[in-house]
# Entry
Amino acid sequence: AINLTGKHMLTLLDYTVEEIDFLLTKASELKLETQKGEVNELLRGKSLGMIFENASTRTRVSFEVGMTQLGGHALFLSPKDLQIGRGEPIKDTANVLSRYVDAIMIRTNSHQTVEEFATHATVPVINALTDAYHPCQALADAMTIKEKKGDLKGLTLVYVGDGNNVAHSLMAVGAKTGMNVTISSPKGYEVDSNVFARAKEQAKGTGAIIQVEQDPFVAAKGADIIYTDVWTSMGYENEQSKHSQDLKPYQVNEELMAVADSKALFMHCLPAHRDEEVTSGVIDGAQSVVYDQAENRLHVQKAILASVISHN
Ligand code: CP
Ligand code: NVA
# Structure
């Protein structure tokens, strides 16, 4: 049997194929329960500490509501108010918080910070977005694709845009589920070569093809899913005009969707900028599943919380 109690959720590459399958199945079960109005207080009396160094709509609200729905409690912790903002070491913060809460969720620019936090925490640490990974997002995306298309194995997802956190996590989830993932990014915005190599290595277990293709129209040909993200990620605001210029040829528009499969889904982690990385016609059109993705963040995170937090 799968037992994830006490396990951190840092990159997804640290989970086995079976563990990911388990989380996706659990998320679907919890979603069904919630839809039927059943109450499942698995985490009654449990607390989640949530540290946000950056803005968030979906992640914050879905984690907080998820804990409430499971009978527990979530604390929103801003570094502006925590002593960490005045220089208290991560080591001390991680140790002390572990004495109060049952799990810690962190959104911070530096992936290194989350790894360091996890080293010192004695409760599970969940990565809620770093410059390198967005594992909760990729799991919600896999759940959404499964709902819309059935089995993930053999499908092809093409990510068009900045090859950073979301792209990395999509490669990871593809490698673990057997879904082919192609990343199409301009020069200077390519995926990290180490993450790419690790995803390709792990894909051997499922047969997924993980690749890069610089030409978005070549990449998108026949795709089952076209995915994009913002041109300017958090922390890069001062490079916005350069990013817009460099990524312009990678806009997801009607022409690009036309080369994908006629039943292709359009996906975006949100927040989106209409008529920048995606045209209004595409994101507001019939192929778009962006709100389903956002909803599934709630169900997937409940599955993660219920699995990693120790309870009887
Ligand atoms: N997709 C996502 O993580 O959204 P937020 O930044 O609003 O949490
Ligand atoms: N790549 C984006 C994702 C936001 C959910 C960012 O890092 O800002």
Remarks:
- The radius of gyration is 19 Å.
- The pocket of norvaline (ligand 2) is lined by residues 129, 164-166, 229-230, 233-234, 269 (CB under 6 Å).
- The chain has two domains: 17-133+296-308, 136-293.
